[in-house]
Structures are given as structure tokens and as C-alpha cells.
Design goal:
209 residues, 7-stranded mixed β-sheet, 7 helices, globular
Length: 209
């Protein structure tokens, strides 16, 4: 399984990730200032950040993926898009001070954290008041038949996808964490298979003091 996590899964992740470049071009311009990317993976998002980024902390728990992300450093530096810090860690204990970042990016990561409520609580903590949580996440299907298949296949899917859950309700979890979610929408993504094709996208905000 360790061989799979370190070599096979990163390759598969890159293959799937390459289909989402148009989505990255659409959502990453919402990010500016000091930014935390949670679950940076292979660094596929780096080339889509704008010059409005002053600092990017790219957090990733898997060492193999973090090494791949390091190879994408030049994509960010070419845009002079601020300082980049690659940090191995997960979203349950963020190595940042409270109210220290302007924005957080979660791109296909909330599906796989083991305790999403704790991760969202940590995101809420490190965001400045009025800060943005920019998300592009696959969530549980709104179609009853597809959702039934997600429930049935999830025990098999989870280990094969290194912790990814097919049926997570991230919108509800964000609401429970205290975020304003009016800027989010849920829709069926045409480029993704039905099991992971229901997407939650947009900007949630931490209320201002």
C-alpha cells in the first residue's frame, strides 16, 4: 500500500487533475494576499495563481506529493506571485497564527481529511475576519440513485483513493463551522464521472468582526 500511495496514486491524481485546468482558471483569481492552500497535492494549482499573491503556504500531508509539488515551484515564481512555503502537515492542526491569512484554498481536499469539522474549524481560526475560503470540492450527489451507489462503493473507494470520501456534505459542514456560504453553488460537472461529479464551487467567507 505504501508503494501505491507514493508512486501510483500521485500519477493517477495528476491524470485526473489535468482535466480541471479550466476550473482552476475560473476560481483561483479569487485568491489574493497571504494564502494557505490546504492539500496542495502535486502543485497543479501553482501555475494558476495570480501576481496578487504575496505569500503562499502550500500544506500537504503526503511526502511523495510534496516532492512533486516542489517541482512546480518555478510555475509560481515565474509570475513573481509571492513567497512559497511548502509544508508537510494536514489540516487538523494548521501551523499558522489565528487571523493570519487573507484566503484559503480547498481544491478536492475536504473529501479526504479524516475530521472535516476540525479542519474547517482550523481554517476558520487562521482566516482574517472577512477572509475568503475558496473551494472546488466534489460532494455527495443530489441524485438519489447516484447517492445510493456512493454509499455502497464508499468502503472500497476510500482506501483506493487514499482517504477520499464519495458522500461528504461539505456545504453543511461549512455552515456548521460558521462560514457564510451564500457564494457557493452545487452543480453536476460535465468532465467528471457521476460518482465524483457533483461539485461544490465558489467562495465562502468568514464573517467580519
Amino acid at each position: 500500500m505504501n508503494l501505491y500511495r507514493q508512486h501510483i496514486f500521485p500519477y493517477l491524481l495528476n491524470k485526473v487533475s489535468s482535466q480541471l485546468d479550466a476550473d482552476r482558471q475560473r476560481i483561483l483569481p479569487y485568491l489574493c494576499g497571504d494564502v494557505l492552500e490546504l492539500g496542495a497535492g502535486t502543485g497543479a494549482n501553482f501555475s494558476f495563481y495570480s501576481e496578487n499573491i504575496t505569500m503562499l503556504v502550500a500544506l500537504e500531508p503526503e511526502a511523495a506529493l510534496l516532492r512533486m509539488a516542489a517541482r512546480q515551484r518555478s510555475a509560481l515564481e515565474a509570475k513573481q506571485a509571492g513567497r512559497l512555503y511548502l509544508v508537510q502537515g494536514d489540516g487538523h492542526n494548521l501551523p499558522l497564527a489565528s487571523s493570519s491569512v487573507d484566503a484559503v484554498l480547498c481544491c478536492l481536499v475536504l473529501c479526504s481529511v479524516s475530521d472535516p469539522q476540525r479542519a474547517l474549524s482550523e481554517i476558520y481560526r487562521v482566516l482574517k475576519p472577512g477572509g475568503n475560503l475558496v473551494v472546488f470540492e466534489h460532494v455527495k450527489s443530489q441524485n438519489a440513485v447516484t447517492h445510493a451507489f456512493q454509499q455502497m462503493l464508499n468502503p472500497l473507494w476510500k482506501p483506493m483513493a487514499c482517504g477520499c470520501q464519495l458522500q461528504r456534505d461539505s456545504l453543511q459542514l461549512m455552515q456548521q463551522a460558521g462560514f457564510n456560504v451564500e457564494g457557493l453553488e452545487t452543480y453536476r460537472h460535465a468532465a467528471l464521472p457521476a460518482l465524483v461529479g457533483t461539485v461544490l464551487e465558489g467562495v465562502a467567507t468568514k464573517p467580519s468582526d
